[in-house]
Amino acid sequence: MTILRRTALAVVLGSTAAIAAGSATAQDAVEFWTMTYGDQLNWKGEVEALIDGFTEETGIEVRHEIVPWGSAFQTYLTVSQGGAAPDCADMYWLHSFSAIGGDQHGPMPLNEYRDEYFPTLEEDFYAGALQDVLWQDDFYGIPWRGDIRAFIYRTDFAEEAGIDGPPQTWDEIVEDAKALTVRDENGNVERWGFAYGTATNVVSWLLPYYWQAGGTMMTDDGQTATIDNEAMRTALTFMRDLMWEHQVVNPDSLEAGYDPQPLFVNGQLAMVGSAEQAWGVELDRDYPQLEGQWAMATSPAGPENSDSFSGAGYFGVLRGSDHVEECVQLIEYMSRDENMLRLAQAAGTVSTKPEVMASEFWSDRPWKIVVGEALQDAHTSQHPAPAWSAIATPEPGGILYDLMYDVIVLQEDMDASIAEAQERMQAELDRS
Amino acid sequence: MNEKNIFCYLMVAPALLVTALLGIYPMLASMVMSFQSYDLLAGQRDTIEWVGFENYRTILADDRFLQTISQTVIFTILAVGIVVSMGLFLAQVVNAKFRGRAVVRTLIFSPWFVPPVVASAIWMWLLQTERSPINAVLRDLGWTSGNIRFLTDPETWGPFSIPMMSVVAVRVWNGLPFVIIFLLAGLQSIPKSLYEAADMDGAGILQKFRHVTLPMLRPVLMVLLALLFMNGFGHFEMNYIMTQGGPRNLTNVLAVWSYQEGFAFFRFDNAAAASGIILAMTSVICAIYLRLQYKDDLR
Questions:
Q1: So where does this one cross the membrane (chain B) (predicted)?
Q2: Which residues of chain B make contact with A244, given a CB cutoff of 8 A?
Q3: Which of A45, A173, A175, A308 has its CA 20 to 30 A from that of A83?
Q4: ∠ CA A42-A44-A50 to the nearest 5 degrees?
Q5: DSSP one-letter string for A149-182
């Protein structure tokens, strides 16, 4: 009986010590969150291999956790309001989350570490990508991934229709889309000629056309809305006419559930105006049978330029962390060219460093070369106002969504709709 | 307090604790928030102000919100009315003894095995204008020449629209097994002697249904209707996933509106006020139910 008691005591003490030791190790480790990109297992494996390399080099332990994209927004919204936060993380929408967190929670400025750890920041990164880590003159981290949009089209259908290469201008988009739209004897569309963009965010379809028409959303200080202008009328007229006058765009495009990729793959859609580079990765991986039947191209030019939608994600530190310096070291390690390349390869996203984009990986497929070229026309989707994400929310009730829906789908009075959107947008900017 | 009472309290304590922590507390916190100015983008968390009924006044002055309230009521009445009517009929069918009853029961109950989120995704595919197999079948049969825009047609007939009816149909499909099981339990508790007595009095099927089945099901139906209405007023997932409230706000309901206001526009105060309206609506149903039950108890 005594032996049994001693054994039980030893087991209890041993377990307690092990749990305490484990807990201490866990507390000492840097907590690092990322979303997932591409194949989740591959991504997790690659990030953790990079972390192992970092730990080997510095002796700093890092605990990696995955935040699913489906709950990423709610997670960082909670973090920015004082919820459980990691030490450092893969983040986005810096301006909104910084404003929500104020000086207590959310993203943490890293100005004091900038010169020591990132002395050649401006030379190393695309200027557009850096806009996503700067807010009110503060530096918040390293942009590590880009989301550049390019034109994509079915080359087999273009060839059938006698079209030689992708459209170069808006007028050519109309011309080609008409030639590529196919209807049955009852008038039902069997193949749409054109889609404004991919399913990710409906509002992101408007932005490049507006920029290409010479418009800007707001003043540089983020204080004044500037959408009631000729550029907006030009962009919306172009989009509306594609849907109703030329009838080459699906009228359901702006509704929930619209997904152009299956249509494109099944031959029910010929051209997409603004597709993420991830389409290239996905078509290569999931539809090898379509090899040679599609191609990417840089954005056709609007009246003023060929700007392409570009987003970015960054590695940053969260306020309240006890491991700020360790996190900065981790971010510096991740931002090295060879590691950025590994991240880009695993994620299938473009890199924010020209050096990485010049690597062989980004030139081994024709679409990758186009993506690299599209970066020259990249126009950041980040705007200098915390309310931007609310303004651009792609749901009914969102200011830009409602503007697009009223003008493009419902064909309501354009001037009145734009004036109303301008007023609502100004109210949102004033609110924040 | 005797030992038996203590045991009873101990047994319900965990459930009460969980309900209080995860149900009552968030509800009260949300109600408090609905009387405060709580705008995430305004950077005023340290100086949250009491604004009385200002948030309620703001949302009730919004035409889109008023449209959403009326649609929530219409959605709920339609869904509850149809599901209970069908449930009453099908519960009789699965209660009857006939060859193949097990197969029929399995088929009828199978939608219950599909979580609402998954059901929404499946039906979104089935109802997608160009890829819809339903449209393909209708065209092949020659019943339609063009595609029906089940979830996207913006045409309306008064407060009704095709997208609204489509979402109601999916909600009915998914909720029907629950209603049938509820009613089946009620049917099986009705003494056979009542039907035998009705037979001796020469009652037909409809008369037996009206004078025996319905009165005997009344307590079950009351609970069922109360649950369905309360659940209906707060319904979220199918409307959000299938249409996000569109097209033209035609399928929006209060819970979706509240979610969009909070998580898309960062106005948690307005979102909490919308939740307050939902609470008020469900409270009315609750009060009606309690009153009817009280009257029944007095009989």
A1: 7-28, 73-94, 106-126, 160-185, 216-236, 271-290
A2: none
A3: A45
A4: 100
A5: EEEEEEHHHHHHTT--S---BHHHHHHHHHHH-E
Whose CA is closest to A154, among A189, A181, A187, A129?
A181
Report if residue B10 sits inside a domain: no
Using CA of residue A79, residue A83, residue A89, residue A90, what is the dihedral sign?
negative
State pLDDT tens for residues B155-208.
Answer: 899 889 999 999 999 999 999 999 999 999 999 999 999 999 999 999 898 899
- Give, in order, the Cα–Cα distances in Å from A183 to each of A239, A267, A331, B27, B141: 21, 13, 53, 53, 20
**Does A216 reach chain B within 8 Å, measured CB to CB?**
no
Query: Which chain B residue lies closest to A73 (C-alpha atoms)?
Result: B263
Q: Is residue B18 part of a domain?
A: no
CATH number for the region A30-147+311-380 comes to 3.40.190.10
Q: Does A252 touch chain B (CB under 8 A)?
A: yes
- DSSP 8-state class, residue B48: P
**CATH class for the domain made up of A149-309+384-431:** alpha beta
Q: Closest-CA residue in chain B for A97?
A: B41
Interface test with B, best of A395, A409, A425 (most B CBs within 10 A): A395
What is the Cα–Cα distance from B57 to B62, expressed in whole angstroms? 9
Chain-centroid distance of CA A420 in Å reads: 28
Assign residue B202 the CATH number of its domain: 1.10.3720.10
DSSP A290-356: GTTSEEEEPPPB-SS---EEEEEEEEEEBTT-S-HHHHHHHHHHHTSHHHHHHHHHHHT-B-S-HHH
Cβ atoms within 10 A of the Cβ of A339, count?
18
